């Protein structure tokens, strides 16, 4: 039973590390400046 709990904790930590890596990658590759979106809700302008 304790070995299964250890695998669960290690698996959870792996998932957290992967999610954090994806978040950091997306934040660093996001373009700088002004983002302009035109869709069916209208026009939105967001400064990055």
Automatic annotation (TrEMBL):
Keywords: Membrane, Transmembrane, Transmembrane helix. It comes from the Bacteria. The chain crosses the membrane at residues 6-25. This is Uncharacterized protein. It comes from Mesorhizobium prunaredense.
């Amino acid at each position: 039973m304790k070995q299964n709990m250890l695998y669960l904790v290690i698996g959870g930590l792996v998932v957290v590390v992967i999610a954090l890596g994806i978040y950091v990658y997306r934040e660093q590759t996001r373009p700088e400046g002004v983002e302009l979106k035109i869709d069916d809700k209208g026009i939105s302008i967001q400064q990055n």
